Amino acid sequence: MQNLKIKNIPTILVSVDFGQSDHAERLQELQLLASSAKLQIVGIVQGKRTKPDSTTYIGSGKVAELEHFIAQAQAELVIFNHDLSPAQQRNLSLGLGCPVIDRTSLILDIFAQRAKSYEGKLQVELAQLEHLATRLIRGWTHLERQKGGIGLRGPGETQLETDRRLIKKRVKILKEKLFALQRQRVLQRRSRRRTDIFSVSIVGYTNAGKSTLFNRLTHAHSYAADQLFATLDTTTRKLFLGKVGSVVISDTVGFIRDLPPTLIAAFRATLEETVQADLLLHVVDANSANREDQFDEVNKILKEIGAETIPQILILNKADLSELSFGSESCIRDEYDRITRIRLSAKTGEGIEFLKQALIEAIAEHSKKFYEKSIDTETIIDGCATVQELF
Question: Which of 24, 189, 204, 272 could disulfide-link to 208, CB 3.0 to 4.6 Å?
Answer without folding.
Answer: 204
